[in-house]
Amino acid sequence: MELGLVELLRAAWIAGTLPILIASLPCSWLGSFHGLVLGFARRGKIMQSSSHRKFTVPQRFFTHFYVVAVAWTTLLLLGTSIYAYRMTPIVSEPFFYSDLGSYLAGRSNIFSFHRSRLMSLENRYRVWHSVFLLLLMEVQVSRRLFETAYVFNYSASARMHIFGYLTGLFFYTAAPLTLCCTCAPEVLKFGINEVSEFILKGTSSMQNIEFHWWDFVNPLLKLGWCQWIGAVIFLWGWIHQHRCHAILLPKGSLWKLDDFQCNEVILLYVCRREFTSILTLGSLREHVGKADEYVIPRGDWFEIVSSPHYLAEIVIYAGMVFASGGADLTIWLVFGFVVSNLVFAAAETHRWYLQKFDNYPSNRVAIIPFLC
Question: What is the mean pLDDT of each run of 10 residues along the chain (372 residues)?
Fold first, then answer.
């Protein structure tokens, strides 16, 4: 039996999630395995405190993740959008006249007519759902790339394990593809045909192509309530990630962070004049001059969890799951990978806080409010 793209992606997400889940089990005989997985996840300050520096790369290589993510997501978004616009438009007419004529002429029965009509409409919405999800991913990874390129400066001594680096590249390649995996083979075939036609006919093949913005926006507006509620959840997490990043910033300044807790989250540049109210919430350092002194971060979700930026990341991907309609197992597996990875990292962050600060708030948990 030939494995398709969906099956391969599901197997990859399961293979990536299982080791983290096993390492998180509270079993003493799994201690060595837990240490091995933690060693792969170590970076920044924890990596520096360890004598193990073999098979590591500079932590500034985080930028590679978002360069790949933006380039790949943009390519998938453009390809899927063009395919959806050209091949699967969502129109409001109740019947296709050719199908109706075929039915009236007796060449099809009423049941097959309705079944083919329903399948056609379902396929159209499936493609446009993929476009919607890719738009959300594009918003997320574009912000990440901006932050790494123009805001964040990694310490020259900060390192990360090469396995963690490869895992990051895998995630930002596989996650966008997962969001459109059900129609990706069709989009690829369509793209190959379009390129072949262009090579054979040249620019003359593009003369009759017209684009109307409303014909592209209208299908997105016709999507169901799940997509828009999912977008609201996504935006909620996105905004709180902004706020938590601002709390980590010194008032009115940018600084170098080599802390391990920037696992997949980069500081957001906030204009002091426009966002003074956010910046006054707090700072990870009390004074710019004390670049190596950390204080307990306070404000926003920091009041309830130690890693609110990870919690916001989970909310962001939960919004994507909701926007997908919740029926796609592959997208659920992506969400499972994100949750297991961030919970595992947040637990280590929480332990670091407890060891470093004697007066650390006792009401805070690692990442999930009131749970863990």
Answer: 81 94 84 78 55 71 90 95 83 46 47 47 85 95 83 70 88 95 91 82 62 76 88 94 71 37 34 32 42 70 88 95 93 96 88 85 88 81
CB atoms within 10 A of CB 232: 11
Give me the half-sphere count of Cα atoms (radius 13 Å) on the Cβ side of residue 157.
8
* Contacting residues for 216 by C-beta, under 8 A, at least 6 apart: 81, 85
What contacts 121, CB < 8 A, 6 or more positions away?
90
The reported pTM is 0.77
Pair of tokens at residue 65: 């993740």
Q: Tell me how far apart the alpha carbons of residues 368 and 128 are, in angstroms, rounded to a whole number.
A: 33
Q: Is 201 exposed, middle or buried (0-12, 13-18, 19+ CB in 10 A)?
A: exposed
Gap between the terminal Cα atoms of the chain: 42
Tokens 């159209």, residue?
124
